[in-house]
């Protein structure tokens, strides 16, 4: 057993002392801050340039109320955000005026031309010309305000008070509460459920594939450099594979521990600076326990498969081709994520959550979303453990022969012979 511990120690020290490990460990918290803080800051950032707008209002009913509604928008300097200019145009001049105004936009003399036809009340069509029509805030603001003006006009014409309609059609606020198995309720909404689950699943997918593929590449490197022959002179193939898998697993747990400490720091830093930490991460501590359980089991399962692929491959290109089915089995739960969120207790989802290559991600998602029966969780874990034992047994048989094989990658019949050997 001391030989396995020696390999574990070697793998752990080699990985932890690498610059890539230090960079990734530090980079992830920075990304956590970026995803939680920057979106809010970007939303708050508004251009401090005045927008020059020319309006051709052939209906003579939109320009005045629109200017009044948007006059409240000001820049930091106190100047109005929008500079309106109304153009008086005869119907026979429309085409020539539109042409000349478009040239002003192209020459950056004005920013927007708004053309309101005389029959806007019936056609509900308004033309908006600008150099940049991808400015969602600007276009949606004009669309909403013009729609509101026309709706108000129609209500008044029908003898209905617009303020009364607004009061009577006010939306209901839906407060959502999640009921646990014990019957306790906790306030939770779509964003919290969706993003908290997605973040955990992303971490599962990212670390399993990263460290599994890392083991595969490491084996190929040691195999091609013939270092593995020296290592195997003092130990056997199974001890070597076990030491590699456990050593890399310890590295990933070290990284998780650092990230968790940093995450807790974000929680205590205050929701004012890191609002996402309060909104999306108010989770039951049991969820973290399940996360660790499914990560460890998923890591052992996929690492054994990646180790087997690495032992039969002679280059990274060969390994990537051979490991494609493994990667696909990790991607499928991510593809199905939206479907799982909508109906986590669907029959198909329940079946997939019991299949070992899918269960680490899908069953964890169900645990976080739907509180499945305990027997389903334990059954999934039990099947996963049995699958790990079986896969490690298969992988060890392939590994002990393939690790010393060079040249052409073995065919499937040859692999079956190794397993029966």
Question: What does this entry look like structurally?
Answer:
The protein is an alpha/beta fold and 421 residues long. Helix content is 67%, strand content 6%. The protein has two domains: 270 residues, no CATH class; 118 residues, 3-Layer(aba) Sandwich (D-Maltodextrin-Binding Protein, domain 2). Helix 3 links the parallel strand 1 and strand 2. Helix 12 runs parallel beside helix 18. The protein is elongated and about 95 Å long. 26% of the residues are buried.
Main traits of this protein?
19 helices, D-Maltodextrin-Binding Protein, domain 2, two-stranded antiparallel sheet, 6 strands, 2 domains, alpha/beta, 421 residues, four-stranded mixed β-sheet, elongated, 67% helix
Quick structural summary:
The chain is an alpha/beta fold and 421 residues long.
Question: Which secondary structure elements does this structure contain, and how are they paired or packed?
Answer:
Elements: H1 2-16, H2 19-44, E1 51-57, H3 63-70, E2 82-86, H4 94-106, E3 112-116, H5 120-123, E4 127-130, H6 136-157, H7 162-168, E5 177-179, E6 185-187, H8 190-224, H9 227-232, H10 237-269, H11 275-280, H12 285-312, H13 316-322, H14 324-335, H15 337-342, H16 347-352, H17 359-370, H18 374-402, H19 412-420
Parallel strand pairs: 1-2, 1-3
Antiparallel strand pairs: 3-4, 5-6
Helix pairs in contact: 1-10, 2-10, 8-10, 8-12, 8-14, 8-17, 10-12, 12-17, 12-18, 17-18, 18-19
């Amino acid at each position: 057993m001391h030989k396995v511990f020696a390999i574990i120690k070697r793998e752990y020290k080699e990985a932890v002392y690498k610059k890539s490990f230090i960079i990734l460990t530090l980079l992830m918290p920075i990304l956590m801050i970026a995803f939680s803080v920057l979106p809010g800051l970007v939303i708050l950032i508004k251009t401090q340039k005045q927008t020059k707008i020319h309006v051709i209002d052939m209906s003579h009913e939109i320009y005045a109320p629109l200017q009044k509604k948007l006059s409240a928008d000001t820049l930091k300097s106190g100047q109005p955000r929008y500079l309106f200019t109304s153009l008086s145009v005869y119907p026979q001049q429309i085409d020539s005026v539109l042409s000349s105004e478009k040239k002003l936009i192209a020459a950056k003399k004005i920013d927007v031309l708004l053309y309101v036809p005389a029959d806007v009340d019936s056609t509900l069509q308004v033309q908006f010309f600008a150099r940049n029509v991808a400015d969602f805030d600007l276009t949606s603001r004009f669309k909403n305000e013009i729609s509101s003006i026309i709706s108000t006009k129609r209500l008044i014409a029908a003898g209905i008070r617009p303020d009364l309609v607004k009061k009577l059609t006010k939306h209901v606020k839906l407060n959502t509460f999640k009921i646990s198995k014990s019957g306790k309720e906790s306030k939770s909404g779509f964003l919290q459920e969706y993003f908290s689950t997605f973040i955990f699943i992303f971490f599962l997918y990212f670390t399993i594939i990263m460290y599994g593929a890392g083991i595969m590449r490491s084996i190929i490197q040691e195999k091609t450099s013939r270092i593995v022959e020296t290592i195997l002179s003092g130990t056997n193939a199974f001890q070597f594979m076990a030491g590699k898998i456990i050593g890399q697993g310890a590295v990933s747990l070290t990284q998780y521990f650092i990230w968790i400490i940093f995450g807790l720091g974000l929680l205590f830093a205050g929701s004012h600076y890191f609002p996402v930490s309060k909104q999306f991460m108010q989770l039951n501590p049991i969820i973290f326990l399940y996360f660790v359980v499914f990560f460890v089991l998923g890591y052992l399962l996929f690492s054994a498969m990646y180790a087997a692929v690495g032992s039969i491959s002679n280059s990274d290109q060969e390994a990537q081709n051979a490991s494609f089915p493994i990667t696909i089995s990790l991607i499928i739960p991510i593809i199905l994520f939206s479907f799982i969120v909508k109906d986590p207790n669907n029959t198909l989802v329940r079946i997939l959550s019991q299949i070992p290559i899918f269960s680490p991600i899908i069953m964890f998602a169900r645990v976080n979303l739907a509180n499945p029966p305990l027997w389903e969780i334990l059954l999934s874990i039990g099947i996963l453990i049995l699958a790990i034992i079986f896969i490690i047994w298969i992988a060890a048989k392939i590994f002990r022969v393939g690790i010393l094989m060079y040249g052409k990658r073995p065919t499937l019949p040859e692999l079956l012979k190794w397993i029966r050997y």
